[in-house]
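agent> Task received from the user: take the single chain below, predict its 3D structure, and emit structure tokens. No templates, no multimer pairing.
agent> Plan: (1) validate residues, (2) run structure prediction, (3) serialize to tokens, (4) report one or two observations.
agent> Step 1 OK, no nonstandard residues flagged.
tool_call: predict_structure(input=
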Amino acid sequence: GAPPTPAAYLRWAGIVAAITVASALLAWAVDAWAWRARLPEPGEWRSLGKLLLWFTWPAWPLGLWTLWRWRRQIASPQVHRHLALPLWFVATALGAMVSTDPSDRALLLGLPALATLAAFALPTLRRSVSALIDWFTLLFFSSAAIGVWVVWIAMMTGVPRQPAANVARLAPGFVPTFSAVALVVALAATAGWLLLVKWRVGRHRAAIWKSLVLPAGGAALVWVLLMTLWLPALDYGRSYAAQVQRLAAIAGHPSCAEFLGLSRGQVAALQFHGDMRMVPARDADASAAPRCDWLVTDRAGRSDAPGAVDPRRWQAVAEVERPVDRFDTLRLYRRIAP
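)
tool_result: status=success, residues=338
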């Protein structure tokens, strides 16, 4: 079709500018700049560089190669959306990585765009390099899938013994559960990978997307296996459910509890998994605030710390460790004085 006119460029530039201004005004209205945006400290740039180097490997070298091989299209007046859109989202993610915390979660949002940008490098590589990438992808993702299956079988049956022992050591108290739906989905994904490999090693007419099949299919395979076979173990390791449920059982499943020095995630976990209404300890002295017979703190809630627990009002009952992180400990106190 005909190339876009200057008026069309101006119209789209105006739309983008209006959306940017509206987003900035919305962030200012909800005070998002105050608690999200920040500037890195001088000593943080090195850690950000390492994060960018290893977190995006091997997509970033391929992305740079794409920018080099398609440099004429990028510099041309005509907009090439297959390059402009991924490049725009990658640049946005990089800006969010530098200006927000945690940086790894901000960078994670740009990985799909970076993978899209890197995909356009594969068809431009030499045949020998492309074949090397195919063999590496085949071996890497096949080995990863076999590892996921072996560990899942070990969790279910106890055989092989060593993977089962590793799971028990890394996630003490975890009880594996069998899901027929998850097993069927995992088997279907594995069968699809085998068919894809068979098709790729066969003789077919050249296609621009042929070199993208194995990397995309292998990434999808491993992701599906992790989200089906390993999902209960990953959820057990990442969530506060086991720790909070044990703490609530020790306290007799109270209806409310005060908290001191806890993160937002810990407070949310106590409310959701423990079914408790959480009251900030500093607000509990107000006449309108309800009083609770239990107090939950972290390791910093020592009696000798500034603003910590008053031993004349609270009696330590238990310390409940997180199963997968012994340094993440909640302390439970019972009220002994009004």
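agent> Step 4: summary for the user.
The CA atoms of residues 148 and 156 lie 12 Å apart.
agent> Done.
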